[in-house]
Amino acid sequence: MSLHVIVGAGPVGTALAHLLADEGHDVRVVTRSGRGPDRPGVTRVQADAADPASLTAQARGAVALYNCANPRSYTSWEEHWPPLAASILQAAETTGAVLAITGNLYGYGPVPGPITRDLPLAATDHKGRLRARMWADAMARQRAGSVRVTEVRASDYVGAIEPMNSMAMLYASQAVRGRPVLTFGPPDVRHTFTYVPDVARTLAAVAVDERAWGEAWHVPSPPTRTVREVVADVASAAGARRVRMLRVPRPLLRMTYPFVPLMREIGELLYQWDRPYVLDAAETTDVFGVEATPWEEVVTETAAALTGRATAAAR
After folding, report:
1. Of 22, 54, 238, 309, which residue is 20 to 30 A from 129 by alpha carbon distance?
2. Alpha carbon distance 15, 21 (integer Å)
3. What is the pairing mode between strands 190-191 and 225-226?
4. Where are the transmembrane segments (predicted)?
């Protein structure tokens, strides 16, 4: 079978590696630490993906190169993303591998209705503008004929996530442990949540289908839920008692910005939680046949993962 090279071994990179290996492909996972799934069909490589020569050497012979990386610090995107994205793009151009990028919805900025893939990238925060620039750079190479590139965009992750860097997962984890849940936005606004294995399935589909190249695609996701519903669903599946849910007042949250850089970064994106945030991925399903995993399955896996972590932490 063909060689697929994945940069990053976070939630999406790990799920994608398992998926491709299960299909019989040779999978190479490239990370700075050399970590990744320890299983047949997957080779873990310790290398710096921000070094174009090093990554190019690892990507030679690959049919697809997947950008599933993410800077380790949420506050250091401006420093670490540009050289990393440029290196991955250069490696794809040099080797001829299709580049499939794991994206998000930040680049669209606030939108008044459902988020469709034909919307302009009109971000109002620096993270969103950075993601938009990265996509513009990739598309410039695509239009020049030097690379084949596609991107999949997902909403907030749910599932057996490690590291647990999703706001909804952080809320649900508190409920599973029987602790009051403090939310940064109104808990009864409808929101799209994306199951991590569905991101992997979408990446695998678009990377090898020429209809996807030169375009961004949305990940099919379950019907919208509110934060309150997500927390209740996961807590119930985990057998946890119902807990209180309290919203942190926005003025109080803003008071932390000068002293807690992470909270300032989160604050720039809270528009996503203040009104309905609905991802439209119907076109992805129509073109590639990828469908969202049923919500009940998502809840069962998420609850099992959080229960396991809570049990381990209590030991």
Report:
1. 54
2. 10
3. antiparallel
4. none
